């Protein structure tokens, strides 16, 4: 089978398509014939060698995919050969024609959902769900600011929060992205490149502020986020690419909380609960992953450049 292999960390071009042996499942493992692969910003951090978690070289990048179960090992009971599944985490890497998973890493893909959409589930939807419900403990009736709502995690968060009965404010940096945020169910949409845009959050909430902020770029926004939080408000730091200055008094006056998260830290029980909820959302149609670009697997370097560019529009997927 063909797979992207990385023999040294560096620029996107270190990713090369190579022929490698087919995969065989061990006990409790599943081999999936991959039809689509999700490209996440973290894949680029790992490839560059700058990320805290470094795989042993050479490796195949990627954590998210969707396809059809091709082989199952002994003791596998949750799926069978021929089932359509999405993959959230893998043992062998996702940028390939086949991927090897534990049984708990594969989840059923309902008929109404395409494989490209399935490839958008793992990191983005699980992150949005964990941030909103398990870290911020958001509840129906609260107001949520999805700060960076046009990309993979943001569109997922807008759909989840809207379906749960929250008032949703989403931001995007391009007109196309903002239209997308509105289409996904945000009640109000703001431009995070427009000066003073956060003042509109106070107007939209009658001066009260928002209960929850899901923050995609904390190094730019965290200090200002604290000023638009309601009493008892919570900010979840999902993305950050540097340091930031903030006034701690802004948390004191509001009894506010800043909460971090890394999806990698999710305990297995919480992950199982997250994916049970996500599969239900796919089945009932409240979750509808948006695919912005499909790129051939051989052009993975182009996909890594694209995912780091401004003007996000849903999810970028690779097609083997
Ligand atoms: P993505 O699809 O590339 O989307 C990036 C988002 O950030 C877009 O909505 C983009 O909007 C927005 N953004 C850009 N400038 C912004 C600003 N000044 N203020 C607010 N938002 C801004 O990436 P993703 O997959 O959604 O991931 C988002 C971030 O979360 C990344 O940094 C990623 O590494 C991180 N992440 C963390 C975890 C975790 O476990 N903690 C998990 C998944 C992702 P425009 O392009 O429209 O400007």
Summed up, what is this model?
The protein is of the alpha/beta class. The chain has helices at 41-48, 115-118, 121-135, 152-163, 175-183, 199-204, 218-225, 249-252, 268-284, 300-307; strands at 2-6, 15-19, 29-38, 64-72, 84-88, 98-102, 106-108, 143-147, 167-172, 188-191, 210-215, 229-237, 257-260, 291-296, 315-319.
Give the arrangement of secondary structure elements:
Elements: E1 2-6, E2 15-19, E3 29-38, H1 41-48, E4 64-72, E5 84-88, E6 98-102, E7 106-108, H2 115-118, H3 121-135, E8 143-147, H4 152-163, E9 167-172, H5 175-183, E10 188-191, H6 199-204, E11 210-215, H7 218-225, E12 229-237, H8 249-252, E13 257-260, H9 268-284, E14 291-296, H10 300-307, E15 315-319
Parallel strand pairs: 8-9, 8-11, 9-10, 11-12, 12-13, 14-15
Antiparallel strand pairs: 1-2, 3-4, 3-6, 3-15, 4-5, 5-7
Helix pairs in contact: 3-4, 3-9
Q: What structural keywords apply?
A:
320 residues; 10 helices; 7-stranded mixed β-sheet; Rossmann fold; 6-stranded parallel β-sheet; Quinone Oxidoreductase, Chain A, domain 1; 15 strands; alpha/beta; 28% helix
